[in-house]
Design brief:
Blueprint: H1 6-29, E1 30-45, E2 54-59, E3 66-76, E4 79-90, E5 95-96, E6 108-115, E7 118-126, H2 130-135, H3 147-153, E8 171-179, E9 186-193, E10 205-214, E11 217-226, E12 240-242, E13 245-247, E14 250-260, E15 265-275, E16 280-292, E17 296-309, E18 312-327, E19 332-343, E20 349-359
Length: 360
């Protein structure tokens, strides 16, 4: 075996050390994380207009279950490349998606760049409505028990025939979003979604939001104009249907505020929708989150939607939820909620659920 001089050995060791250092630096510049949330509950559910209650073990009591990947690469000079691929799932059956026919990565499928200028993201990602809605009600992104989220996003397939107030999805595909840097607690997001219809070069879904967080005070607003359905984004000519009237365009604006008094955090929102035919909604919501000791909080929320238009009588929907959320760790909590739902001239519905939510 050929011998190695001490001088060559020292150089070899130095070269190995330098290569290892560069390897560590390169790996530190790029990160990919697996993330997700699993939420399941048992309960007795009855919305306004239901003929009877339904007892169920279901997914997504307080948050919609999901899993996926998110990554960042440091390109130097403050510039970063980012991507996200995340998929909703139903923990009660093991199926992917929020519902049958949902796309695989309907939560996130996007890539972009961020830096001192803010960020630009392309693909499927949040719509302008989503963050203001979930951050300014005490039940967050609960599509089961949050009155505000229910009124915006969940149509009732029962005797009420109550359609959701918001015509589009909480995520937009085929989208470009620009996010500003943070200016003293204020950030803005500007969204544009292409309809991708042959021969159509006009505006499709467009909107933006403002988010302000400074100390105990939080403020928000959003505006959006929608003419393309989601999640498959096929221009169908109908984005909203209420009282037998089909609309091809919807405009929606929203304002919200929250203030943390330490002993309780209070929430309030107001919004209006209008269409290219004569019907529209006005929705009010109030809420509170009250700490109980160091591990729990009582949640209370109310939302009212007033629906009116020429040719049909005004209808109102009032939903009230009262719940308790108990933290077991940074990643796991238990919750229980009771909800009452009322619609003009229909039977009242009362629901109850208890569940567990785990983040990873």
């Amino acid at each position: 075996m050929q011998s190695i001089s001490p001088n060559k050995l020292a150089k070899l060791l130095l070269a190995t050390a330098v290569a290892a250092a560069f390897a560590n630096t390169a790996s530190a510049q790029s990160t990919v994380n697996v993330e997700g949330l699993v939420d399941a509950y048992v309960g007795s559910m009855r919305n306004a207009g239901d003929a009877a209650k339904t007892t169920r073990a279901n997914s997504g009591g307080m948050s919609t279950s999901y899993f996926g990947f998110r990554g960042t690469e440091d390109l130097g000079g403050g510039l970063k490349a980012n991507f996200a691929l995340t998929s909703f799932l139903r923990a009660d059956t093991g199926e992917f998606g929020r519902f049958t026919g949902d796309t695989l990565f309907s939560r996130d499928a996007n890539v972009g760049l961020s830096g001192n200028f803010g960020s630009v993201t392309l693909g499927r990602l949040l719509a302008p409505n989503f963050l203001p809605t979930i951050l300014f009600n005490p039940f967050g992104d609960s599509f089961t028990f949050s009155p505000l989220v229910l009124h915006f996003n969940v149509g009732l397939f029962n005797g009420s025939g109550w359609g959701r107030s918001q015509a589009n999805d909480t995520g937009w595909s085929n989208q470009v979003r620009y996010t500003t840097p943070n200016f003293g607690g204020l950030t803005a997001n500007m969204h544009y979604q292409f309809g991708e219809a042959a021969g159509n070069s006009g505006k499709n879904n467009v909107g933006g939001n403002l988010l302000y967080f400074k100390g105990p005070l939080s403020l928000t607003a959003f505006y959006q104009r929608v003419e393309v359905n989601n999640p498959l984004d096929v221009p169908s000519g109908i984005v909203s249907s209420v009282a037998g009237r089909n609309a091809s365009h919807q405009k929606m604006w929203f304002v919200g505020a929250a203030y943390d008094f330490t002993v309780a955090k209070l929430f309030a929102t107001y919004d209006e929708t209008s269409h290219n035919v004569d019907f529209g909604d006005k929705t009010y919501s109030l809420g509170a989150s009250v700490p109980v000791g160091t591990t729990g909080k009582v949640l209370a929320a109310w939302a009212r939607t007033e629906r009116s238009g020429s040719g049909f009588a005004e209808r109102k929907r009032d939903t009230v939820s009262l719940g308790y959320d108990h933290t077991l760790s940074k990643r796991t909590d238990l919750y229980t909620v009771v909800m009452n739902d009322r619609i003009t001239n229909l039977a009242t519905g009362t629901s109850f659920g208890a569940g567990i939510r785990h983040r990873f």
